[in-house]
Amino acid sequence: MKKQLDITFQYLMNGFQNINGYCCDTSKYLLREIAAQLNETQIDALFICLINELKGNNERNHELYAESIEYLSMKLNQKQLDNAFECLNEYICALCETILTKLNDKQLDRCSAFIHGLKKKKIDS
User: Nearest 5 degrees, angle CA 67-CA 34-CA 13?
Assistant: First the structure.
């Protein structure tokens, strides 16, 4: 059973890295099936792989990696969770920057008003 899990885990890692023609979409679903069986070393390796791929240039798969990190986060220790949040914060900032550069003046005004409303709501609560 352990040998099968090791082979499956390697397939999972190859898929997330698009190695040997494996598809990262398949790895996302495979992760959901085997996550409970992974040991801490495998979780560490997978988490590092997902973070590195999320930071990579393949924007098409960013959502897939973020979803996989979200799913895996249920098994992460505190240090791994801190790293995940830091990486996701960087990703969100980059995403907001991309969106904001494409907005027209009216949309920017609405966005600014929305952010101001969130700040006010946070202060009031």
Answer: 65
- Residue 51: which of 84, 81, 25, 16 has the closest Cα? 84
Do the Cβ atoms of 52 and 58 come closer than 8 Å? no
Q: How many folded domains does the chain comprise?
A: 1
Q: Which two tokens stand for residue 20?
A: 């040997």
pLDDT in tens, 81-95: 787 777 777 777 777
Question: If residue 113 lies in a helix (H) or strand (E), which one and from where to where?
Answer: helix 105-124
CB 35 within 8 A of CB 72: yes
Tokens of 110: 């609405």
| Contact between residue 43 and residue 28 where contact means Cβ atoms under 8 Å apart | no
Instruction: Give this prediction's pTM.
Output: 0.61
Q: Which domain holds residue 72?
A: 2-124
